Amino acid sequence: MSAVADDLVRIATIEKARGYWTTVARRLTRDPVSVGCAAVLILIALAALLAPYLGLADPYQGSMIRRLRPIGTPGYPLGTDELGRDMLARLIYGGRLSLVLGLLPVVLAFIIGTTFGVIAGYVGGFVNQAIMRTVDVFYAFPSVLLAIAISGALGAGIVNSLLSLTIVFIPPITRVAESVTTSVRGLDFVDAARASGAGPLTIMRVHVLGNVLGPIFVYSTSLISVCMILAAGLSFLGLGTKPPEPEWGLMLNTLRTAIYVNPWVAALPGAMIFAVSICFNLLSDGMRSAMDVRS
Amino acid sequence: MSEAEVLSPVADRGGTQQPLLAVRGLSKHFTVRGGLIGRAGVVRAVDDVSFTVDKGEVLGIVGESGCGKSTTARLVIGLIAADAGEIVLDGELVGGAVSLRELRRRVQMVFQDSYASLNPRLTIEDTVAFGPKVHGLAPAEARARAHDLLRKVGLEPGLFADRYPHELSGGQRQRVNIARALALSPRLVLLDEAVSALDKSVEAQVLNLLLDLKDELALTYVFISHDLNVVRFISDRVIVMYLGEVVESGPVETLWADARHPYTRALLAAMPSLDPARRTEQAPISGDPPNPIDPPSGCRFHTRCPFAEAVCSARSPALIATGNDRHTAACHMVDPASGHSRAGSSPTAMETMHA
């Protein structure tokens, strides 16, 4: 086929050029698993956000005579906990803290880690060594241990556990950002940009960021579930949230003594953590394949 | 910086006799570490390379993979810092009277891989307009300029400006790369295997486009390729590189008719012939180029040269004029005083090489 005919075919088949992110969004909405997971997450987040307007029982109000009621008890659809508080209300209210503890550290680590990683990857040389070897120091500890150590050193509390979780997630994100940037940096279009006289900051902003954000973002979303579990773990150990605050990890901890009395109720906070984690993971997988637009 | 200053073509200086680009003693050695305890080696990617490019000419650079062609181009445009040597652009020393930024406005480059050299997240309009914007042109003007250039390279802006690289064919992408290279009104364009990845029909179209643009915009090209037919078609003068060194240079027809260096002759003999009566039955040259980490002593070609003698491994031959219109070759056989038994003999004596 001649090149001209080839061009005409192309012009005919591509009706309208779309932006990259529009294409990604369109592909994501065509994936039923991703849509389902997003729906579950949005539902849980909305419920947590609008908890005071849902007509729920007071999540702090206990009752000594109605402790550990099973699921399906009239007035308590999901039963009551070891202090007789309504489980449904506590689970929905608990979403507020749990989601914040799961998301915020990852968001902060995404911003900080991407900055470090892109600079290390683009500048290379001594700067790369300095940043990456510092990051390696944090790799010497298992993430759970690191979170516990930092939280322990800073003292219990929500802000401190947010801080410690952020620190835990900066190294892996930095490392991913650095490796993606290093591979993009070697491509000819970066050389072409340098050859047109652009400075490093302009090149990073225009040519590097757009090509590395996708993979880093996907990787970061897969960390949300880990972060939620770590946050729950910190609360479980008494380093994060303090009673009587409703939070899934802490609820799991306080209900563990009731596991022989009423196992289904005791398992509920764990089920929430599991559901949210797996939704984030599946969504992140869906995003990974939606971003592979070249095919 | 005013717009006129930014993107109007640079006025000619020094007359037509002054070379547009003069490269003297350019060298780049890469240090290679051989594992944790391995001995560090030095790759002499480009070793003491000198050449000039005249205004308005097309200088071809040929050689096998890894001979330093692309490294030379990247050194000229400053993408890699040279270890030694100087680059003189239009009579002014780069790094002295001409800054690197200014060099990069007057010299631009087109890369081989048309896909890798375009940012997949930018529309082709943004890609072409990037350079002018960096040099201070207002976004709207940069856009107008990009449309103008896209039209020049045969891509209707109305259809193509908003497209992404993956929506274009290889030939169209290479046209975008050419438009991007021209966006800063350069005087010299380095074409690094710019058409090598294209299929033959598209290659011919792009070559013709390059020649048209050269006339229209008074450009000068350095055309790097391993494809001798293409080099012969487009070049006025050719330099032949082997293992980081220039082994022969001269006007294209002189070189084709009267190559003096055995390597050049082998390269030309390796070209497939369309005439069945003249088919190549024997490999004109055997083996791979030697490891550039530890290049052979003396003449680097002596390990593969059918005429190698003691003097070849002992001394490195200099580029000597053959007495034939700017034709130079770095071979002991060209130098009557070298002590080689065939020194000074006419090249016809070498015809027996592959008879």
List the helices and strands and how they pair.
The complex is a heterodimer of chains A (295) and B (355).
Chain A: H1 3-13, H2 20-29, H3 32-49, H4 87-123, H5 125-139, H6 143-154, H7 158-185, H8 188-195, H9 200-236, H10 248-255, H11 263-291
Helix pairs in contact in A: 2-11, 3-4, 3-11, 4-5, 4-7, 4-9, 5-7, 6-7, 7-9, 8-9, 9-10, 9-11, 10-11
Chain B: H1 3-7, E1 21-32, E2 41-53, E3 58-62, H2 69-76, E4 84-89, E5 92-93, H3 100-106, E6 107-110, H4 124-134, H5 139-152, H6 157-160, H7 170-182, E7 188-192, H8 200-217, E8 220-224, H9 228-234, E9 237-242, E10 245-251, H10 252-257, H11 262-269, H12 310-314, E11 320-321, E12 328-329
Parallel strand pairs in B: 3-8, 3-9, 6-7, 7-8
Antiparallel strand pairs in B: 1-2, 1-4, 4-5, 9-10, 10-12, 11-12
Summary tags:
heterodimer; A: 295 residues; mainly alpha; MetI-like fold; B: 355 residues; alpha/beta; Rossmann fold; 2 domains; 8-stranded mixed beta sheet; 4-stranded antiparallel beta sheet; 12 strands; 30% helix; disordered C terminus
CATH topology annotation of chain A: MetI-like fold
Give the overall silhouette of chain A.
elongated
Q: What is the highest CATH level, the class of the largest domain in chain B?
A: Alpha Beta
Count the domains of chain B. Answer: 2
CATH architecture of the largest domain in chain B: 3-Layer(aba) Sandwich
- Average pLDDT across residues of chain B? 84
Largest sheet of chain B: 8 strands, mixed
**Which regions of chain A have little confidence, pLDDT < 50, spanning 5+ residues?**
12-16
Overall number of structural domains of chain A: 1
CATH topology value of the largest domain in chain B: Rossmann fold
Distance between the termini of chain A: 22 Å
Q: Spans of chain B of 5+ residues with little confidence (pLDDT < 50)?
A: 1-5, 348-355
